[in-house]
Amino acid sequence: MSESEHATYDQSADVGQPTSNARLAILIVLGAEIMFFAGLIGTFLVFRLGSVTWPPPTQADVRLPIGITGINTIVLLLSGYTMIRALRTVRRGLQNQLRIWLLVTGVLGAIFLIVQGTEWVRLVHHGFTLSSGVYGSIFYVLIGCHALHALLAVVWVLGVLAKAVAGRFSADQHLGVEICAIYWTFVVVLWPILYVLVYLV
Amino acid sequence: MRRYLSLMSGVTAYALFVIPTVVQACPSCKLDDDPIAQGFKWSILFLMAMPYIVFSLVGGGIFFSIKRVKQRYNQ
Question: What is the ipTM of this complex?
Fold first, then answer.
């Protein structure tokens, strides 16, 4: 086996391991990630339920972009669907379709990030910053951490796309796509929870 | 030995059924109607549940992964 093939090689299939090390590793990483976001959501709950009025009176004039972020949520959910399609196509060994679905996933993720970034710039111009009390801090830390994860996921998808273009995945060897899909699903599933908590509740 | 067990059972029963009074386990939740106390309460409950949810998800992921590999071997 060549050096390049190692990157996508699912060792468990050959040596009879119940699951590959990479798959196990991503599950453990996601466990840690979930606890990280749980800590942030726990902090949010203390401030949100601890305030009689929300947003706090000092930031009562702040209006979060609920509508555009709602549309953005649909865009991200769509990217979750396209990533599942990418995984299904690689399992059937359809190289061209895999590339298309990965590209669409990456583009949808990039659109999500661009819209989020634009809305952030608008909020900062309105004077709503990280130092705007508890409301500003919790908003930017919680949503910002998710945005960083989404950015990492987009970069990862583009890396997987580059490998797909180079023809490094097949119906039998596609661990790279699978691991990336697990991480992408985490980013997609987490967002609606944050959206409902931070924007709607 | 029997006497010791009887004594210990008696002490345990006394401790469980006679001594207890209503107490607040959470030091931040003394006032039930205080919004901050409510915030802490829900946050603590949420964080308390999360490790179980995480272990269930990771455990479930590993379980189904093993199941899939076994099915592949059987085919």
Answer: 0.72
How many other C-beta atoms can be found within 10 angstroms of the C-beta atom of residue A105? Answer: 29
- Tell me which amino acid residue A89 is: T
Q: Does residue A6 surpass a pLDDT of 50?
A: no
Burial annotation A136-174 (CB, 10 A radius, 16+ → b, else e) = bebbbebbebbbebbbebbebbbebbebbeeebbeeebb
Residue whose pair of structure tokens reads 């908003």 in the numeric block: A139
Residue environment code for A180-195, b if the CB has 16+ CB neighbours within 10 A, otherwise e: bbbbbbbbbebbeebb
Q: Determine the Cα–Cα distance for residues B54 and A28; give it in Å rounded to an integer.
A: 9
Chain B residues in contact with A16 (beta carbon < 8 A): 73
In chain B, residues with a C-beta closer than 8 Å to the C-beta of A30 are 57-58
- In CATH, the number for domain A15-200 is 1.20.120.80
User: Of A198, A47, A195, A42, which is closest to residue A134 (Cα–Cα)?
Assistant: A47
B13-52 pLDDT tens trace: 988 888 777 666 666 656 667 788 888 888 888 999 999 9
For residue A103, give every residue at least 6 positions away whose Cβ sits within 8 Å of its Cβ, in sequence order, or none.
Answer: A161
